[in-house]
Amino acid sequence: MAPGRSTAYVHGYSPRERERLGDQARTLAELLHHDTAYPAGSSVLEAGCGVGAQTMRLARSSPGARIVAMDQSANSVREARRALGPAGGTNVTFLAGDLFHMPWAEASFDHVFVCFVLEHLRDPATALRQLHGVLRPGGTLTVIEGDHGSTFFHPDDADARRAVQALVEVQANLGGDALIGRRLYPLLRETGFSDVHVSPRLVYADAGRPEMVSGFTKKTFTAMVEGAREAALEQGLMDPRAWERGIAGLRRAAEPDGTFIYCFFKGTAVRRS
Length: 273
Prior knowledge:
The chain has helices at 15-33, 55-61, 74-88, 124-134, 158-173, 184-190, 210-226, 229-234, 240-252; strands at 43-47, 66-71, 92-96, 109-115, 135-146, 152-154, 194-205, 259-270. By secondary structure, the protein is an alpha/beta fold. Strands 1, 2, 3, 4, 5, 6, 7 and 8 form an eight-stranded mixed sheet that branches. Helix 1 (15-33) packs across helix 7 and helix 5 crosses helix 9. The longest helix is centred in the N-terminal third of the chain and has 19 residues, at 15-33. The chain starts with 14 loop residues before the first helix and ends with a strand.
């Protein structure tokens, strides 16, 4: 992406992060994507495909669509292409490209899909305007973002809350916004989209839903916060002992008497002209 408009990816590009993204995609597939499918013959741009964690779902739910999956990181694009393979997505073309300087003409796509991307941009409004431009009139945008401020857990733990807030501040210091989910509706309206609808997608995990405890509380959210340790300590947001207590507090919410709540936001909108 253009200098000054993208941020360093706060979670890094380690093998562990690739694994976490896969766990997240599998755990949240039904919650986030059960109502996303594109008709045969339609052209779809996935902007910010990363290592292809969401691309696999798109390819399977819309086998007749023509999907272009783009990311700024050539390494991530190679990982995504390798991960899908011929059997995983024969209807997907991968491309390393800049969201702020896309190579397509006006009105090139029927649909655009964006998932967990805007939070990492210094200028998400400009990105949305660019995406508006490559949509044909009547075409749709689907965008999904989280909001770390929606995190609640039991037993409550002050250090755990501080660790989550530290991740929010690390991302803000890089120019991103880990609270962007709550902003989706006004962002889509102000960037020219019509028929804007935003729905909350609530994650709730307790011992009666062991797949969510394992897949989300442990492997997605707590693992994500753990990945910010070095940056949080370097920026003086927490001391090492408090940080470790905070991570222990998040893990505590995955015990049999614990609960965990988080809210994603899914927006859909239309280009009218």
